[in-house]
Structures are given as structure tokens and as C-alpha cells.
Design a protein that fits this description.
The complex is a heterodimer of chains A (230) and B (360). Chain A has helices at residues 11-21, 55-65, 97-109, 112-123, 150-159, 212-223; strands at residues 2-7, 29-34, 43-46, 49-52, 78-82, 128-131, 166-168, 176-178, 181-182. With 230 residues, chain A is an alpha/beta fold. In chain A, strand 1, helix 1 and strand 2 form a beta-alpha-beta unit. In chain A, helix 1 crosses helix 6 and helix 3 (97-109) packs across helix 5. Chain A is globular, with a radius of gyration of 17 Å. Chain B has a five-stranded parallel sheet with strand order 2-1-5-9-10, with helices on both faces. With 360 residues, chain B is an alpha/beta fold. In chain B, strand 3 (117-119) and strand 4 (122-124) form a beta hairpin. Chain B is built from ten helices and ten strands. The chains are: A alpha/beta (230), B alpha/beta (360). Chains A and B meet through helix 3 of A and helix 5 of B.
């Protein structure tokens, strides 16, 4: 299976995870196109391809893909959009139904991931998968306010996707500490996205970005899932 | 020599106002409390308070928002659901007695009454009647949301070093039997008016002053470091229940609020008054800061107020480094989309189109 993976900083864990996984999956060929932040939002449709409109994004996708200048989705079996400002929002249980619903819809509709999915769907019928940002890593502290359940929020986010043939993916259970946090060990040695600049391959701080072990688990789960398994 | 000979130029009309180039705002406000860029500031009160919160944040001051919009919510929906308007999601607190009521509820001195307004299957919070435009799905949802707001309000009282409070109204509505106050007359924004239960009170000087002093004292008992910056909304009343002409009622109401603010600021340590009211309304400044409806404050007026505010802070040295730039009229115009429940009263005069975007 030839897989087109578009992502931002979060794709670093997948890229590094694939290096740990490749030997065990000779039938899969992922090609990464990544740029930090919302850089990939600057890909535009030209014919049947997505092309970068800024030199920075042109550089980054060439660097991360091994030299490709544009993305032609039909060259792949499926497209995975990872991170790209799409989060499953962690919502206080005391929020009203109306506010919680709006937060779910806005999380999806306002994401770079969905904007890219629209552009891809305009030029290709290939299946598109959305991998949201990892949930924050768990930290020790006082009990937090009661939350809306992850399942409820996830389903509302999935329902807010209005592009046909686009599926929202859950974070693999093996990576979770509880329903709203990621196991903290996946923070260890998490590295920044390598796009060949001075900020590449540096250690991350914070609770948002995960390491290669996380990426390996995530990709194993994805490649072994019913959507992709061949 | 007599005492007048010792006074600064700002004390003389001829030198401060009737001078070539017109009146200036130099010396209009000398801050008595320090607001540094590291000072946590919370803003509550009438509609005009929103300008101060926004401007503080835009100028790199530490405006504290203890009830931020949930993750994912767009800026448009955050505004729709009244996030980021004040430091907590209280809605407008128009009177000093409403402030005292919120303080008592948040600090556990009293509990909010068991009251919710149902209309067409939706539930409205009598104390934040327009906080959710379509109301709440259930009474439990309303109460959970109010509990969240009270928690955020309490947190803001505990964390802040300065509270900016804008006094807006003296005209108020109370529950005749239980004594609690509503921010809006029942039956206007939501609910049903019942003359047996809902009583009008036009608060006089003594009433307002006592409520304000008590609110300040209770907050200080909880957070002894809290200081206060009082302002008075320059925006005239939308409607009056006083029986007077709305212009006469406005003058009386604003005069009371202005007098209370000045008195409390003079009497209590750690309380200051910022004259935004004067900048907008005083003929000395041209009285040109209202739109054609003579009610809505123009963006230029808001910009003048905030320019004066930051210039005084930075001249005084309490604001640290100079601000990146004074607010422009254009920026103020963008920020002029205020959220004010009281505007709805204009609809009851059959002149809905008259309602401006700026309320007390």
C-alpha cells in the first residue's frame, strides 16, 4: 500500500516511528510531506496535484518526501492527514450542550486538516483519513473537572466532517493513560520535525508532542486497522 | 499669596480647557494604584468595561480571563456564547449591588436562588439572561453553567491584583420577597414579569455607595491585596422606569454613580477612579464622542479614553515599558461590537433601530 501522509510537527513522531517499523511492513510505502504549524495550509490545487505556494513549504515538502515538488493524491492508495490543527477537544462536563457542540464542529471545520481534505477531494477520490493531534500527556496533579466523554466528543467531531470519504481516526488505545490523556512515557526524547533547518531534530518540551515509540504504535494501529488492511 | 496661586494649570479652566488647541487630557488622571504589565487585572461591570479588558490584553497587560472559551471554539462562537467579554462569564454587572450579589454567591456567603426561566422548552438564567443566546437545554445544564461561572468569578477574585469595575446603572429590579437582584427586568431579555414579585428600585446615592463599599470590603477580606479601579459608563440609559424623561433620568443616574465612585476612591485606600466618563461626556472635550443617536460612543471616543488610560499609566511608570501603540480609532471600531443585555429595552419603545451598539 502506498500511503500519502501530510502533517505538521506532530508528524515527526510518525516519521521517526516508521523507521522503527519499516522492516516489519515491507508491503507498505508511506511518503511523508510535512511542514511545521499550518504550513501545509498553503498547498493549493493545480490540475490533479497539490502544489506549494510558498518557498518555505516547497522546501519542507521536498525535504520530507525525498525530493517531490508536489503531491498527486491519485499516485497513492490512501491519504492520511495527521495533526494539522485538528484536535478532539477536551471539554468540561458543565459546558452546555450548545457550546460543546459548537466546539466540536469548530474544531473540525476550523482545522487545516479539513481544509486540505476538501482540496484533495476536489481532485481525487482516494480515501482520506484524519489523525487528530495526540491528546496531551498525562501529568500528576489534582483531579480535574469532570469531562464530556471522549466517545461523545469524538462522534460529534466525526459527524462535523462534511467531506465525503473522509474518516476521523481514534488515538490507539495502547497510547492512552485514560480517555483524555496520553501515557507520559511517550514524551521521552520526542524530537522536532526534521525539515533540514536549525530547529530540526531538537528535543521537545511540553505535553503535546510525542516520540518515535508513539509514532510506531500509532502507525501499527493504523496499518493494521480495517480501513487500511488489505 | 493665596492657595490658588499654588495650583497646577490643570486646576484652571482657562489654562486646561479654554486654551489654544482646546482641552487636553494631561493631568486628567494620575493613577493612585499601580498597574504594571505583570499585574493581573480583571474587568467586570457594565458594557463599557469591555473596552478596558480588550485594550489591556491588546497592550500587553495581563488581563485575566478565568473562564476562557473551551478548546476548539471559534472566535465567532466564543463571542456568541459570551466568552472573553469579561474576566468570567458573568454577563453585564450593571449595578454595585449586583456586584455585591455575585461576590456573596461566589464566596459562599449566600446561594443563588432556586430560580430559572423557562420559555418554549429552553431555560434562561435570570442572572445571565443572554449568556447563551438560545437558552439552556435543561435546568440542570443552566445550573452547571452558572456554577462554572461562579467558580471562575471566585478564581478571578483570588488571583487578580486589580479589579476594574464599571458602574452602569442605578435603575434595578429585585425579587420583592427573596431580595435578589436581576440584571434585567424579568420579561425583557427572558422570563415573565410579575408585578407581585418583581419590584423596581432606582438606587440612590446611599444605596449604591453602601453596596459598593460592602462589595469591596468582602473582596478584600478574601484577597487583601486586591485594588480597584472604578469607572462610570458614559453611555446614557436605553430606557428609564423612573417616570422622568430619559435624559433627566440619565443625568441623575450617572451623577449618582459618578459621585459614589469619587467618594469611595477618595475614602478607601487602594481604590482609584478613572475618568472615562468625563472624556466622553464633558463639553470640554467637544462632546463629539457620540454617534447620531447621541448614545453610542464612537470608536474615536473609545480610542481617546484608552489612549488617556495608557498614557497616564506609562507616564506614571506603573505600566513599565511604553505600550507598542495607542489604540487607533480603527482598532476601537473593530472592538466596538459590545455585548450588552440592556440594549433589549430599546425594543420596548417601538424604536428597535435606535438601539446602538454601546450601552451603559
Amino acid at each position: 500500500m502506498k500511503l500519502c501522509i501530510l502533517g505538521n510537527s506532530h508528524a515527526s513522531s510518525l516519521r521517526r516511528g516508521w523507521d522503527l517499523l519499516a522492516a516489519a511492513h515491507p508491503g507498505h510505502e508511506p511518503v511523508f510531506f510535512a511542514s511545521r504549524g499550518t504550513g501545509l495550509g498553503e498547498l493549493e490545487v493545480s490540475g490533479d496535484t497539490l502544489v506549494p505556494v510558498t518557498p518555505k513549504v516547497a522546501h519542507d515538502i521536498a525535504f520530507t518526501s525525498g525530493g517531490l515538488a508536489a503531491i498527486r493524491p491519485d499516485d497513492y492508495d490512501a491519504v492520511l492527514l495527521y495533526g494539522l490543527s485538528l484536535g478532539v477537544p477536551d471539554l468540561d462536563a458543565r459546558l452546555s450542550e450548545a457550546v460543546a457542540h459548537a466546539a466540536c464542529v469548530d474544531s473540525v471545520q476550523g482545522s487545516t486538516a479539513l481544509r486540505l481534505a476538501r482540496r484533495i477531494r476536489a481532485i481525487s477520490a482516494r480515501p482520506i483519513y484524519l489523525g487528530p493531534n495526540p491528546l496531551l500527556a498525562w501529568v500528576e496533579g489534582p483531579p480535574r473537572a469532570r469531562k464530556w466523554s471522549y466517545d461523545t466528543v469524538f462522534e460529534r467531531c466525526a459527524a462535523a466532517i462534511d467531506v465525503p470519504g473522509v474518516s476521523l481516526l481514534r488515538q490507539p488505545p495502547a497510547t492512552l493513560h485514560d480517555e483524555w490523556t496520553t501515557r507520559p512515557e511517550f514524551l521521552k526524547d520526542a524530537m522536532t520535525l526534521d525539515v533540514g533547518d536549525a530547529d530540526s531534530s531538537r528535543l521537545y518540551g511540553g505535553r503535546r508532542h510525542m516520540n518515535a515509540a508513539f509514532g510506531r504504535l500509532w502507525l501499527e494501529h493504523f496499518l493494521g486497522g480495517p480501513a487500511v488492511r488489505r | 499669596m493665596n492657595p490658588y496661586e499654588q495650583l497646577e494649570a490643570k486646576a484652571f479652566w482657562a489654562l486646561a480647557v479654554a486654551r489654544p488647541g482646546g482641552a487636553g487630557t494631561e493631568g486628567l488622571w494620575t493613577p493612585r494604584i499601580a498597574i504594571a504589565r505583570t499585574t493581573r487585572v480583571v474587568t467586570y461591570g457594565s458594557c463599557f468595561a469591555q473596552h478596558i479588558g480588550r485594550s489591556l490584553a491588546e497592550h500587553g497587560y495581563r488581563w485575566l480571563n478565568t473562564e476562557p472559551a473551551p478548546p476548539g471554539l471559534s472566535a465567532e462562537n466564543a463571542r456568541k456564547y459570551n466568552y472573553g467579554i469579561f474576566s468570567g462569564r458573568t454577563g453585564n454587572i450593571y449595578t454595585a449591588s449586583l456586584l455585591r450579589q455575585w461576590v456573596r454567591w461566589a464566596l459562599g456567603d449566600a446561594a443563588p436562588p432556586d430560580e430559572a426561566w423557562e420559555q418554549d422548552g429552553r431555560f434562561y438564567d435570570p442572572f445571565r439572561p443572554r449568556i447563551e443566546p438560545g437558552g439552556f437545554a435543561s435546568r440542570a445544564e443552566l445550573e452547571a453553567s452558572r456554577a462554572m461561572a461562579l467558580e471562575a468569578f471566585r478564581l478571578s477574585l483570588s488571583k487578580a491584583g486589580v479589579m476594574v469595575f464599571t458602574l452602569g446603572l442605578t435603575e434595578s429590579w429585585f425579587h420583592r420577597l427573596q431580595g435578589h437582584e436581576y440584571p434585567m427586568c424579568p420579561g425583557t431579555a427572558a422570563g415573565t414579569f410579575d408585578a407581585r414579585l418583581h419590584g423596581f428600585v432606582n438606587q440612590d446615592y446611599a444605596f449604591v455607595r453602601q453596596a459598593l463599599v460592602e462589595a469591596i470590603a468582602r473582596i478584600r477580606a478574601f484577597n487583601r491585596k486586591m485594588r480597584f479601579l472604578l469607572t462610570v459608563s458614559p453611555v446614557p440609559l436605553t430606557a428609564t422606569m423612573s417616570g422622568e424623561h430619559v435624559v433627566v433620568a440619565t443625568t441623575e443616574s450617572k451623577s449618582i454613580l459618578r459621585a459614589v465612585a469619587g467618594s469611595v476612591a477618595r475614602e478607601l485606600d487602594g481604590v482609584d477612579y478613572f475618568p472615562s466618563y468625563e472624556i466622553i461626556t464633558a463639553p470640554a472635550f467637544g462632546a463629539a464622542y457620540f454617534e447620531d443617536n447621541q448614545r453610542t460612543v464612537t470608536p474615536a471616543g473609545v480610542a481617546h479614553v484608552m489612549r488617556t488610560f495608557f498614557a497616564a499609566l506609562e507616564r506614571d511608570g506603573t505600566g513599565g515599558e511604553p505600550a507598542a501603540g495607542a489604540p487607533t480609532a480603527a482598532a476601537a471600531a473593530e472592538a466596538d461590537d459590545l455585548v450588552c443585555e440592556e440594549e433589549i429595552l430599546g425594543a420596548f419603545g417601538g424604536r428597535r433601530g435606535d438601539a446602538g451598539s454601546s450601552r451603559p
